[in-house]
Every structure is written in C-alpha cells, then in structure tokens.
Amino acid sequence: MTAATSPTTPLAGVRVLDLSRVLAGPWCTQTLADLGADVIKIERPLRNGSGGDDTRGWGPPFLRDRDGHDTAEAAYYLGTNRNKRSVTVDIARPQGQALIRRLAERCDVFVENFKVGDMARYGLDSTRLLALNPRLVYCSITGFGQTGPYRDRAGYDYAVQGMGGLMSVTGPSRQEIADDAPGGGPQKVGVAVADLFTGMYATTAILAALRHRDATGQGQAIDMALLDTQVAMLANLGANYLVTGAPPQRAGNAHQNIVPYQVFEVADGHMILAVGNDGQFAKFCEVAGRPELAADPRFARNADRVRHRGVLVPLLAEVMRSRPKADWLGALETAKVPCGPINDLAEVFADPQVRARGMTVELPHPLADRVRLVASPMKFSATPVQYRLPPPLLGEHTDEVLAEAGLSASELAALKEAGVI
Question: Kind of pairing, strands 137-142 and 109-112?
Fold first, then answer.
C-alpha cells in the first residue's frame, strides 16, 4: 500500500511502472489508476525545453493558470494522465536503466510502448525484467506487435485505421457523395479509436494476467498491437466479410445490418433513428402515421428491410422531413423507439443525463485553482473510482517515488547533478 492508493479501491496495493506515452498506453494506465493502482509515470527529463510525454505540448488548447495565461499542460495530456505520479528518468543512460530495474523489482505491472527492440537495447525487455521479478506482468504496446513482417514499423492510429479496414467502411457511401467530390471518400473516426481500444484491451489483458499471477505466482509478457486491435474491433463487419467474402462498403450514417438505423433530416435539422427490432419498427410506423409499412412484406422483418433498403429509406426520409426534431424525439421516446439528437460537446456536457451520471470531475491543480476532466464511466457499488491526483507536472514526484525505492538524499542529488533524473 502506498500513500497514493486507498484500501477501498479494486486495485489497491497494485503498483504500475508506466513507460508509455501519447494515448494507447496512458489510456490503459489511467484506467488502472482510476481503479486504485499506484501508477508511476516515467518521463524524459526536461532538456533544452523538451521533455516528458509528447502530449504535454499537443495544444492548444492548454490549461490556463490563475491569471488566464496558457501553461505548458495541454488538454490532450490532461485527459489521459490523472491519478498518476510523474518521475523523470533518462532511460538512455546506464544509471537511468538501473533505476528502472530497481523500480520494476517493486512493481506488479510494467507498461511500455517503445518501438520493438528499444527495451532490449536498454536492458529493460520482458525477458530480463521477468528474470528480475518473476511475478511481473509486462505489457508491450506497439503498432504491429513483437512478431510479423511489420514489427519494426512505427504505428500510428490514423495509419492503422486505414490499414485495418476501418476507413474503408467510414464516410459517406459512393451513392451519397462520389469519392472525388468534396467530403467524399474514406474517412477516419473523429477520435483515435485504435489507440483507445488498444488501451482498453491492454487493461483487460493486464487484469487477467494479474489474476493468473495471484493464483500461480507467475508473471508473463503481454504483446498488444494497434493493428490487431483494429482488426478485432471490426466486429460484425469483419464477420460479414468472413462469411461472404465480399468487403463491406461505406454506408455513411446508415447501418450495414439494420434498417432503419441512421441519421435522417427533419424539418429543423437532423436526428438519429435507431430501430433495433421488428417490434420497434412497428411502433415507429404508428408514430409516423404509416402503419401500413410495418405490414408490407418487403419491410416486416429486418432482413427484408435490409434487402429493400433502397425502397424503404426514401419513403421514411420523406416522412421524417415533415416534423421538427422536438416532435419526433418526444413522440418516439414515449413509444420506446430508440432515437436521439446529434449534440456538439457543449450540448453533451450540459445534457441532464450526462450531468446526473457525474461524467465530469474537478481536481485541484498546482498551476490553476481547478482542472475539469471527463470522469471515468465505471460505476461500482462497493469500490467506487476515486480521483486522488490531478495529472502530474513533469517530474513532480521524482524525489518522493525514488525515496520510497530506498534512494538517499545524497544519491538523488548526485543523479540530478549527472542529469539522470
């Protein structure tokens, strides 16, 4: 147990040594930290104005200080690094590598997202650290994994969304907008979903490996790859291809396997209609004043609606344009037909459901009175997520963590003088 954890959290007493940067790794370790793990974030010391996690400088926007001026803490960094302690160590130096090994001996989990071979070059690969600490769970996150012909390539979310097929099924259909027209062609998702999903899969894998370790005493290495995750998260579309041999095409805001399940224009804007079964379709037709459509054999079952999408959707589009959004939403929600508005983020965070679920959290910050962050979606009845620490300043906890590892004040001073920490 450390001062940074609480006995009422699920992962109290678990210590994570985090050598990851940017998004996939930090998203994983922030989740572990939210669950109560003591996450020690290792960052590059500041040298000539550069250091730390790259995302610290990925702005604007930046956190503003008490006087309203930009700090060096980008919102991107703030969104993925709460509940962690920051320690600066130059792992390219032998003394820095020795410090990492010393910390790894005392940790349960090690997370890194360096290029394949970098950790071995530093003497910090899974083989050596597991020999040092056989109970360690060592998780590597890379673009393409530790094996295969692409193992040495750098991997980035945008490229992986393209390589992994997601962009081929994202964006307007060719019937809506030609590929060579403005707004046409394949498109990426608005957030870095390959990174985020990899972070979540890595979290799940680490928790499973900890379960195994606690039962057997045996640690292990975990090999996570963005491309693997992107292929896995194709879900029903990947299954569609494997069953038919035909690559799914872009469907815009429509669904490949469900109709009607898409955005429709209404009298004063747009909204989502998400009919998930035949009963809901019949209810929608009643609300729309077109009950005969539910009885039409071309549209009665979802499989029929998918086959006759080209006939049905134009009929529904004409009906939907006849009424304003508020009328549709009120009537459809009363009838228990899934639907919803298309909100911008100001509307999201003002939404009464989002507010009722506590989806923002404020934490004190040393450079500002408070920092407002998106909260964890995990809701526990007995071990709730605790927001213990704001995203740390670069090296904020170096002395504290290394002192816990047994370094004396004179040793810390010597390491600082040598530029190792």
Answer: parallel
Which residues touch 287 (CB under 8 Å, ≥6 apart)? Answer: 331, 332, 335, 337
What backbone torsions phi and psi does residue 58 show, to the nearest 5 degrees?
-85, 70
**What are the angstrom distances between the C-alpha of 142 and each of 87, 108, 182, 227?**
22, 21, 34, 9
Q: Per-residue pLDDT tens, the chain, 421 aa: give them.
A: 344 566 689 999 999 999 999 999 999 999 999 999 999 999 999 998 889 999 999 999 999 999 999 999 999 999 999 999 999 999 999 999 999 999 999 999 999 999 999 999 999 999 999 999 999 999 999 999 999 999 999 999 999 999 999 999 999 988 888 898 988 999 999 999 999 999 999 999 999 999 999 999 999 999 999 999 999 999 999 999 999 999 999 988 889 899 999 999 999 999 999 999 999 999 999 999 999 999 999 999 999 999 999 999 999 999 999 999 999 999 999 999 999 999 999 999 999 999 999 999 999 999 998 999 999 999 999 999 999 999 999 999 999 999 999 999 999 999 999 999 9
Q: How far is CA 264 from CA 113, 177, 258, 267, 272, in A?
A: 42, 16, 15, 10, 6
- Give the SS3 label for residue 66: coil
CB–CB of 104/129 below 8 Å? yes
Look up tokens 């009885």; give the residue: 295
338 CB neighbour count, 10 Å cutoff: 15
Cis before 10 (ω within 30) = no
The active-site residue, picked from 108, 195, 223, 351, is 195
Q: Residue with structure tokens 């963590």?
A: 401
Distance CA 91, CA 99 (A): 8
pTM, two decimal places: 0.91
For residue 379 the two structure tokens come to: 């809701």
Q: CB–CB of 368/65 below 8 Å?
A: yes
Distance CA 192, CA 299 (A): 37
| C-beta pairs of 162-168 under 8 Å, 24+ apart in sequence | 162/186, 162/188, 163/227, 163/230, 164/194, 164/226, 164/227, 164/230, 164/231, 164/234, 165/230, 165/231, 165/234, 165/237, 165/238, 166/193, 166/194, 166/230, 166/233, 166/234, 168/247, 168/248, 168/249, 168/250
Q: Is 195 a catalytic residue?
A: yes
CB atoms within 10 A of CB 418: 12
